[in-house]
Amino acid sequence: MSSHSLPISSLLALFFLVVLTRVPTILSVDDPRYSTCRETLTCGSVSNISYPFWGLNRLSYCGQPGFELRCENDVAEIMMNENTLRVLDIDPERQILKVAREDYWNGYCPTKFINTSINYDHFNYGSNLRNLTLFYGCNLPTTPTFTVFTNCSINNTLTDMSYATRNMLVDTRYSTCRGIVVVPVYEAAAKDLEVNPMTIQAALRGGFELQWKADNDECRRCRDSDGVCGYNQISSSFTCFCSDKPSETTCLPPTEEKKKTMGKGLILGLGLVVAITILICFLVLWFKGKSLLNQGKKKEDARIEAFIKKFGSLAPRRYSYAEIKKMTNKFNHKLGQGGFGSVYKGKLPDCRLVAVKVLSESKENGEDFMNEVASISRTSHVNIVSLLGYCFEKSKRALIYEFMPHGSLDGFIYDRGLHHRSCRLEWRTLYDIALGIARGLEYLHQGCNTRILHFDIKPHNILLDENFCPKISDFGLSKLCERKESIISMACARGTIGYIAPEVFCRNFGGVSYKSDVYSYGMMVLEMVGGRKNIDVGASQTSEVYFPSWIYKHLDQSMNLNLNGVIAEEEEEITRKLITVSLWCIQSDPFDRPSMTKVIEMLQANVQSLIIPPRPFVSSPVRSPKTLEHQK
Ligand SMILES: *[C@@H]1O[C@H](CO)[C@@H](O)[C@H](O)[C@H]1NC(C)=O
Ligand SMILES: *[C@@H]1O[C@H](CO)[C@@H](O)[C@H](O)[C@H]1NC(C)=O
Ligand SMILES: *[C@@H]1O[C@H](CO)[C@@H](O)[C@H](O)[C@H]1NC(C)=O
Ligand SMILES: *[C@@H]1O[C@H](CO)[C@@H](O)[C@H](O)[C@H]1NC(C)=O
Ligand SMILES: *[C@@H]1O[C@H](CO)[C@@H](O)[C@H](O)[C@H]1NC(C)=O
């Protein structure tokens, strides 16, 4: 070994130290909803508008339904029932919205007679108002009660308009009127009108006040914790967006110290990362001629060796390569083959049947190997495969699992191509499998200190035991992360096309988190449903129909799935449930996807109580199982 290897390895160590400590801080300040909702809305003369209002640059999750503002020619407007109300002022302190009827802004002769009506779910009239009652075309005489104007031209017909400055009991006396409209005005304006009838237009333009109510206390607490108020459209409830993730109540207050050093730390960390990366690239190029390849391999081996040592007692039993050979009867019975290597049937000395996965020799597999050992060794759950042992001897690496007589789930859901094993499962079994996988994933996501993200949930990685009880396997791409960090950083996106969540390969969709597994789970369940022959996909096999889109359309149409033949009610209910849940899981915004706990809850709920999700965003994805492949 050359004497130059020492500075490189220490530099590498420093590099990883910097990356590990700094990069997560940089990447975690990236919930796009936080920055979107922190912006205020400005339209014409109304400015600095925030929660519960939304519209224009503020997306719908920044406010409550019923508080959407539109901006027409620099005039802010809010719709309430049939009324278009012009927003004159917003007082966030007192929660007062000052509005005027748009149709009475330029005159008291509207072309349509519409009463004022507000959305009482969110608003109440202010206390300083009076109702103006406007009568059209009744030929009323001028009396102390009524002031009459005779010059309205409505739809080219001359019409008289009389008004009373209070609520009027409308009886048969007014049956000849073309229309009667009630418009609230300020008490003071009504008093002015009694003195001077010519101020009618000023009174109408003066508008009226509405008091709103919308999670005021929650929002104040959220703001006090440096959060931004928002709305969760799934649970229809208040949400506090923090710089890294949403919270139901408030953001964890960063300590003053942290706040101060964060800015400096970010720049320093970033600078270091860049400088060291350049240095390392330089050194790597320089050393390339010196059989670095060989060295790298040795280092990799040393790393894994160190990892196993560190793992100590937690790790399952270690076997030698000779033992593996004996166990598998010289690799006699091959069960399967993948990009990672091959799987063989084997027998432990105590006669237990096992599956032995022999990893092919590549650098990537070293990473996969460690992920697998680290993740599975920490788990013990009926829906997660158990790792019984491993082999690590120079370049020979193997993992030993319990044997699953029914193989992997993909053999049961695809009917085409190479899968000769294919045979149909009962709907009930499919449901139990979906529920079992959900439980396994929930367990992984909810782990007490470390949360395990799988990142490669797909039918090929679900194994079935003799009772068709599903077990999650293949943790090669998994990530262990601290329970408290919800958004994780990823150096490279890996996963399988068709199951990989959009945010894993495109950060615009939001941070990578446990919700990325939820997405893969949803795609898988859809395939479990869609792979069943007795659903008529309604298109020839050759046409490129995207199954989630197709199924969504049919779900929309009163969920009337076109099931061939007679299907028991229970089975239909199961299908609907699986579809509804999976469509929730594949929402493109991770925020809209349920947690696995929620998925289990939904799977066990009555189908009638499930809300049909919004249409998932789709853009000609790859679905055909034949084209599935490992992505680097
Ligand atoms: C905007 O509104 C917030 C409260 O909603 C207030 O604290 C802030 O001072 C306002 N800014 C301006 C420029 O009016
Ligand atoms: C005026 O005409 C429009 C369009 O024809 C119609 O919708 C409206 O009801 C009419 N208004 C009145 C007061 O008759
Ligand atoms: C408005 O409300 C009054 C009663 O308050 C009613 O008599 C009148 O017909 C309503 N007008 C319209 C256009 O609905
Ligand atoms: C005005 O009329 C509406 C119903 O049209 C009523 O709810 C409201 O209380 C009235 N306001 C006043 C001040 O009388
Ligand atoms: C009706 O006449 C009054 C004066 O009597 C005038 O101020 C008002 O603008 C006129 N309104 C319309 C709609 O012509």
From TrEMBL:
Organism the protein comes from: Gossypium tomentosum (Hawaiian cotton)
GO function term, MF aspect, one: ATP binding
UniProt: ATP binding residues: 357
Start and end residues of each Protein kinase domain: 329-618
Signal peptide bounds: 1-28
Gene3D superfamilies, sorted: Phosphorylase Kinase, domain 1, Transferase(Phosphotransferase) domain 1
EC number: 2.7.11.1
InterPro entries: Kinase-like_dom_sf, LRK10/LRL21-25-like, Prot_kinase_dom, Protein_kinase_ATP_BS, Ser/Thr_kinase_AS, WAK_assoc_C, WAK_GUB
Recorded topology in the membrane: Single-pass type I membrane protein
Chief location of this protein within or outside the cell: membrane
First-tier enzyme category under EC: transferase
Catalytic activity entry: L-threonyl-[protein] + ATP = O-phospho-L-threonyl-[protein] + ADP + H(+); L-seryl-[protein] + ATP = O-phospho-L-seryl-[protein] + ADP + H(+)
Entries under Pfam families matching the protein: GUB_WAK_bind, Pkinase, WAK_assoc
Locations listed in the record: Membrane
Keywords: ATP-binding, Glycoprotein, Kinase, Membrane, Nucleotide-binding, Serine/threonine-protein kinase, Signal, Transferase, Transmembrane, Transmembrane helix
GO cellular component assignments: membrane
Residue stretches spanning the membrane: 266-287
Protein known as: non-specific serine/threonine protein kinase
